[in-house]
Design a protein that fits this description.
The chain is an all-alpha fold. The protein is built from 19 helices and no strands. The protein starts with a helix and ends in a 15-residue tail after the last helix.
């Protein structure tokens, strides 16, 4: 595998994954052009609640992709079908539980985030509508994870583009056409998630190597296979808890600096998401290729995946940081026209420029470990990174304010890269204890 082959897989995945933060970015941009910063703050508070819920169960996409890629590499048709059947059932159960628990969940988060009365009222409108999309959002995670693991990159890209274009159109229609405000933003996202699920199910059904009627129920609920899946998901769940602890502490502390600072931080965080999900495209490529390498017992493909992923993560960091440095004012004005918010955001832009270099290796190596379905090192590295953030949050922020908050976040991001890199040699020895004969295999990207 060379650079051209790697990029042929990675670039469509980048376009696919980068559409994910566009849901939040579009929501923020639409309300950012309304006359009051409370609208941005309300969507920021509502978004953190759903990021918390959905990120907690993000393992549904990540582990599905890893198991599907391994089955695909081993040419195991039954395994490919089971790789989506089991997590789909899990997503349905979790989604229904979230709807049933929407009142206690929302009333738990509001006091923790401490928004003012107007922001809390608007955020509550947003939350009440979005909760009904929980099952569909989680089911979409599974569908996208399976499509990526099966190397159906173009199909997953089209599905993401459909959902986000629909969200943009409905956002503009509901907010500026119908004057529904924050409720319109929530309704647009809800309808986009629901329609994307039905389109995705049609696409996946047509691509399944075996339909569920050809599988016995005993195979779907096989104890050993479910235990392995749950062990991976448990570690990814803990990893996400750490990540969400950081983002919730970050948002809550930003809210204590005032509504305008909260709004400015919300915009910068959306820009950070776009950068992070850009790297996530490389992580997905790493996950797919690592899964293939393990399924096919191809040590050479695994080593090439490590090398190319890290190289392109570093190259991309320079490009992303340069683009933001040169065009930061234009980028900020896409989110809001309020000069006071833009001025505050400019004060902290240095941290957005540094962010790509801090996080790039952490994200792409995360893809390698998930492709190997080895999640314990991910969990351990995230726990160590969380301890770094907490030290900064409680020691630096009280004196350095919002700059200290962003510095703590950058230290956390750098920790994710450094600590996970330390586990790579151990992973390599575990996966390939002996020198295996390299094999040249050709895979089709649909």
């Amino acid at each position: 595998m060379n650079h051209k082959t790697y990029l042929a897989l990675a670039l469509p995945l980048i376009f696919s994954t980068i559409t994910t933060p566009l849901l939040g970015a579009v929501d923020t941009a639409v309300v950012g052009h309304m006359p009051d910063s409370s609208y941005i703050a309300a969507v920021a508070v509502g978004t953190i609640i759903f990021n918390t819920m959905y990120w907690l169960f993000g393992f549904l996409r990540v582990s599905t992709s890893g198991f599907a890629a391994q089955a695909h590499g081993a040419m195991d048709k039954e395994g490919e079908t089971l790789a989506i059947t089991r997590p789909l059932l899990m997503a349905i159960i979790i989604g229904i539980c979230l709807i049933a628990l929407q009142w206690p969940i929302s009333h738990l988060f509001m006091p923790l985030l401490s928004p003012d009365a107007q922001v809390q009222s608007l955020a509550s409108e947003y939350v009440q509508i979005r909760f009904w999309g929980a099952p569909f959002a989680l089911l979409n995670y599974v569908l996208l994870g399976w499509l990526m693991g099966m190397s159906m990159i173009k199909v997953s890209l089209l599905l993401q583009i459909f959902m986000n274009c629909l969200n943009i159109v409905l956002d503009l229609l509901f907010v500026f056409g119908f004057s529904w405000g924050v409720s319109g933003v929530a309704a647009a996202t809800l309808l986009s998630e629901i329609l994307a699920f039905f389109v995705g199910m049609v696409l996946v059904w047509r691509k399944l190597p075996l339909h569920t009627g050809q599988l016995s129920f005993s195979k779907i609920i096989d104890t050993s296979s479910l235990k392995r899946m749950m062990n991976v998901n448990k570690d990814l769940f803990i990893r996400t808890l750490c990540l969400l602890t950081v983002f919730n502490l970050f948002t809550a502390k930003g809210a204590s600096f005032g509504t305008e600072t909260l709004a400015a931080n919300a915009i910068l965080i959306q820009i950070h998401y776009i950068m992070a999900y850009f790297f996530d495209g490389f992580a997905n490529a790493s996950s797919i290729l690592t899964g293939r390498a393990i399924g096919a017992k191809d040590r050479g493909l695994y080593q090439q995946t490590l090398r190319l992923s890290c190289q392109w993560a570093l190259y991309s960091s320079f490009v992303i940081a340069s683009i933001y440095f040169l065009f930061n004012d234009h980028i900020l004005r896409l989110f809001t026209k309020m000069p006071e918010i833009i001025e505050i955001a400019h004060q902290y832009e240095i941290w957005i420029i540094v962010f790509p270099f801090a996080i790039c290796f952490g994200i792409v190596l995360y893809g390698v470990f998930t492709g190997a379905t080895e999640a314990a090192p991910i969990r351990n590295s995230m726990l160590l990174s969380l301890s770094v953030y907490l030290a900064g949050h409680y020691l630096i922020v009280p004196t350095a304010g919002n700059h200290g908050l962003w510095l703590s976040f950058i230290l956390f991001s750098a920790g994710r890269s450094i600590f996970l890199a330390l586990f790579v040699p151990l992973l390599t020895r575990k996966l390939f204890p002996k020198n295996l004969v390299n094999s040249e295999k050709h895979y089709t990207v649909y």
